Amino acid sequence: MVRRKPTLIGSIALMVTVSVTPRLALPRQATAEVKQLLLLMDKDRNGKVSREESMRFMAAEFDRLDVNHDGELDVNELTGLRISPGRHPGGTGSK
Known about the structure:
With 95 residues, the chain is mainly α. It has one domain (8-78). It has helices at residues 8-20, 28-41, 51-65, 75-78. The radius of gyration is 14 Å and the shape is flat. The two termini are 26 Å apart.
């Protein structure tokens, strides 16, 4: 099985789906992706993501994706990009 890091848009869609449909069983792969996202976002390692952790993660991802630093994300910046564990406050990898 090939493991891929979730895309930013895919992760956001997954978070929205989980929050909107909490009673539906998620496929095993989606559950694994949610756990991976939790590990990336959960800076204090308490097993939960606070609003502050979520906002910090999203702000850091926005800044990372905004390669031309114009304060906006365009199609070129969003196309094919992945979450990078070492490039935001909740990351576990090296920069």
